[in-house]
Design goal:
It is a single chain. By secondary structure, the chain is of the alpha/beta class. It has a single domain, classed as Spore Coat Polysaccharide Biosynthesis Protein SpsA, Chain A. It is built from 8 helices and 10 strands. The strands form 2 sheets. A 7-stranded mixed sheet has the order 3-2-1-4-8-6-9, sandwiched between helices. Helix 5 packs parallel to helix 6. The radius of gyration is 17 Å and the shape is globular. The termini are far apart.
């Protein structure tokens, strides 16, 4: 069995070779695959790399991430993004920590940094304490809970909990929601021994980020805030249906409208 399955939605094909090449050194002795759900084909420089698989879909990022997870074959799942590079040995050390420390109920928060042009500073551990964010200070969020946007988890456990809720378009809020359901179900979140990935960032509506920014602010946040007004929000949703993504539209209108771009560059020109 494969040790680690990376799963993610992806549109930034120009970063994928960097993602793959740095994953090799980051995983060390651990075998891995990368499963990306994207509207675009695998780039030519990765077409002969057997452990990189691309599944075509034009849905929203949450739907695509769930489809990616459904098509993984690894013992552990690693949710990540397509615009970063991994630090050598970082994933291998996280797998070692998982095997030594975690039960099937738990997961590892894969620590990251983020900033335009990879300029982000190291984040303090308190960043992943849910109540350190004013947005998450809600009745349904435990004051001692952690959150995680990049994580390592047993594949069977991810499926048992239902994975991500694809009523959210972008992944920020369903990632919080998943972390909270995991903890409500008795799981713990441990921090990775080292930073794992350095990501770039396009702020607000710059470059390709407009649909993501607008989905997160105007669609997802109101749903999340209403949901977590209930102190039992996470407890009452253990589990959700793993197949919930099938209720999500197959085309993300906010991104694609009626167009069907075949490349990232064409998508930007359409915008």
């Amino acid at each position: 069995m494969i040790d680690v399955s990376f799963f993610l939605p992806g549109i930034r094909t120009h970063f994928w070779e960097q993602m793959y090449s740095t994953a090799v050194a980051a995983c060390g002795k651990d075998s891995f695959e990368i499963v990306i759900v994207s509207p675009f084909d695998v780039p030519d420089n990765l077409k002969n790399v057997e452990c990189v698989r691309v599944i075509k879909d034009f849905g929203n990022p949450t739907r695509c991430a769930q489809i990616a997870a459904a098509n993984t074959r690894g013992r552990l799942l690693y949710h990540t993004v397509d615009d970063g590079f991994f630090y050598p040995g970082s994933i291998e050390s996280a797998v070692t920590l998982y095997d030594a420390t975690c039960s099937k109920l738990d997961m590892i928060n894969m620590r990251y940094r983020e900033g335009p042009g990879y300029s982000g500073a190291a984040l303090p551990l308190d960043f992943w304490r849910a109540w350190s964010s004013a947005e998450l200070q809600l009745p349904g969020v435990g004051k001692g809970w952690r959150t995680s946007l990049h994580f390592l988890i047993d594949r069977e456990r991810f499926v048992e909990l239902g994975g991500f809720d694809a009523q959210f378009e972008y992944l920020n809020h369903p990632l919080h929601d998943f972390a909270f359901r995991l903890q409500a179900a008795g799981g713990k979140i441990y921090h990775s021994p080292h930073e794992v990935i350095n990501c770039t960032h396009y702020p607000n509506e710059t470059i390709d980020h407009g649909p993501i920014h607008n989905a997160q602010i105007f669609h997802d946040a109101p749903i999340f805030h209403e949901m977590y007004q209930s102190p039992m929000a996470a407890f009452d949703r253990i589990p959700i249906s793993f197949d919930n993504w099938k209720q999500s539209p197959p085309r993300w209108e906010r991104r694609f409208g009626g167009k069907t771009p075949t490349t990232y560059e064409e998508m930007l020109n359409n915008d």
